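Regression test case RT-17, inverse folding.

Input:
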């Protein structure tokens, strides 16, 4: 897999860190905007990346690239992913996949119809512990309550309060907490139980209308899921499932999972999630495995999750 990385923000730096030690994925190029060329040069030197582009179309015409990893502002995800797919490149797209469900559906159709691989990067869906959690669900009986909280005080929030608006707090760039932190919670719930019957979103809105924090309620026939996220305040993160016969809890937030606790009756089993490996390694390894094995059906399973999550997020923002 010859991979080009698009962007120069924190998530791109994290991705490049994760990719250092993965055999089978070679980062051949990085593409940044012309005004950010100095940042691209710094990343190129730090990670020994052969090629640097400031023209996305030229990169897409390169034979040195067969995959692109897109880690740019939310609003540009659809445009950049569609261009790559139409150029015959496989795509790894950072979450959230798209702002509108019609967009992710269009991208999925292009990929499938052209035998291309298209993935949304949601880290924990590809981690080994998540399969352990999924397999343990029947042991805790009928599900009654699901709770998730990913709250992380943003380093840019104080600037926002002073009137300096970065993309993450800018409605024009599809910023906000729902599409940033809460999208992980939505992925957790929807990947396990599918789309809910009803969706409600209660945002805490800033002075420009952006949701600086918020609570999404997903209602299923026999249980309810509460998804909390905040960028204007902080608290320990967790994901918890309560059943009639026990409970399951992931301790920590998606960027720093600590342990998985499974309680059935009075017996608690704890699995440490501190592996010493980069948190993004599992997803890249899974993408590589799916690609190498030409497992198009597994790709479609993940795409179905991406589409459903996008539909739920869209419903939240329309409420």
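Golden output:
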């Amino acid at each position: 897999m010859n991979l080009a990385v698009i962007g120069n923000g924190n998530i791109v730096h994290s991705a490049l860190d994760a990719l250092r030690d993965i055999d089978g994925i070679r980062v051949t190029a990085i593409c940044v905007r012309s005004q950010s060329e100095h940042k691209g040069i710094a990343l190129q030197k730090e990670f020994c990346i052969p090629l640097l582009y400031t023209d996305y179309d030229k990169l897409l015409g390169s034979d040195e690239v067969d995959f692109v990893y897109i880690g740019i502002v939310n609003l540009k995800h659809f445009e950049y992913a569609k261009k790559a797919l139409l150029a015959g490149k496989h795509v790894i797209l950072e979450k959230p996949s798209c702002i509108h469900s019609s967009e992710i559906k269009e991208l999925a159709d292009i990929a499938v119809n052209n035998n291309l691989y298209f993935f949304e990067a949601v880290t924990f869906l590809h981690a080994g512990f998540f399969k352990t959690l999924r397999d343990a669900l029947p042991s805790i009986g009928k599900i009654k309550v699901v709770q998730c909280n990913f709250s992380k005080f943003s380093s840019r929030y104080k600037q926002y309060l002073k009137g300096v608006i970065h993309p993450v707090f800018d409605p024009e760039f599809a910023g906000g907490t729902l599409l940033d932190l809460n999208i992980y919670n939505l992925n957790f719930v929807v990947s396990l139980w599918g789309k809910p019957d009803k969706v409600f979103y209660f945002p805490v809105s800033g002075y420009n209308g952006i949701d600086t924090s918020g609570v999404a309620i997903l209602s299923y026939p026999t249980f309810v899921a509460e998804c909390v996220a905040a960028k204007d305040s902080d608290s320990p993160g967790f994901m918890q499932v309560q059943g009639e016969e026990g409970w399951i809890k992931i301790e920590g937030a998606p960027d720093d999972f600590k342990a998985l606790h499974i309680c059935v009756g009075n017996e608690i089993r704890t699995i440490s999630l501190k592996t010493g490996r980069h948190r993004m390694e599992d997803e890249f390894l899974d993408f590589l495995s799916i690609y190498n094995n030409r497992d198009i059906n597994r790709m479609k399973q993940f795409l179905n999750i991406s589409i459903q999550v996008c539909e739920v997020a869209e419903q939240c923002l329309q409420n």
